[in-house]
Amino acid sequence: xxxxxxxxxxRITKTGKRIMxxxxxxxGHDRMYWYRQDPGLGLxxxxxxxDVKDINKGEISDGYSVSRQAQAKFSLxxxxxxxxxxxxxxxxxxxxxxxxxxxxxxxxxLLVL
Amino acid sequence: QKEVEQDPxxxxxxxxxxxSLNCTYSNSAFQYFMWYRQYSRKxxxxxxxxxxxxxxEDGRFTAQVDKSSKYISLFIRDSQPSDSATYLCAxxxxxxxxxxxxxxxxxxxxxxx
Lengths: 113, 113
Description:
The complex is a heterodimer of chains A (113) and B (113).
Chain A: E1 4-7, E2 10-13, E3 19-25, E4 31-38, E5 42-51, E6 54-57, E7 64-70, E8 73-78, E9 87-94, E10 102-104, E11 108-112
Parallel strand pairs in A: 2-11
Antiparallel strand pairs in A: 1-3, 3-8, 4-5, 4-9, 5-6, 7-8, 9-10, 9-11
Chain B: E1 4-6, E2 11-14, E3 19-25, E4 32-38, E5 45-50, E6 54-58, E7 61-66, E8 71-76, E9 85-93, E10 100-103, E11 107-112
Parallel strand pairs in B: 2-11
Antiparallel strand pairs in B: 1-3, 3-8, 4-5, 4-9, 6-7, 7-8, 9-10, 9-11
């Protein structure tokens, strides 16, 4: 089984709809992240969490919110989706041992119409 | 100026060729350097990690860092069709609460049989 799983893998939604992307991990890592990937822009950090009680904004958090339900679960919500949130979304985990090496999930492809 | 720049390609080479992938970065505060490989419809996976100037070799892959020039490279020897993927460079800086990691936009590589 995959160490980092994401659901759904693909989603089409309409402008203004609320949508939740879910991430689960079995690696036992404390740190979890949400990124979005756009062509030519690379991976950009949306939110990160070091433990259940610790949530931090990344560089592009506007329009997004997160919930860390447990050590192994980290969800990303788009409260009111807009077309420019169409992107590939990745969840990642890490344990910082002399530097951040992150383990990524398979991604969620989101299309907002 | 972007913190990390990377030629997006696409780069197409014949099987067996030596491949050179490159990134430049602008801030000398970054202390460690990574290469991730991302296959189509998959999440990035860590390929190489180094924190010192010079070369680090792992099988057919060699990561090269020149901190004085702010230049990092990944060399692939005897390239194989299975090496066809997008390669992301990433740079990291140790900070008090969170290691800042910046990803390059990625270079798309195709190895032709």
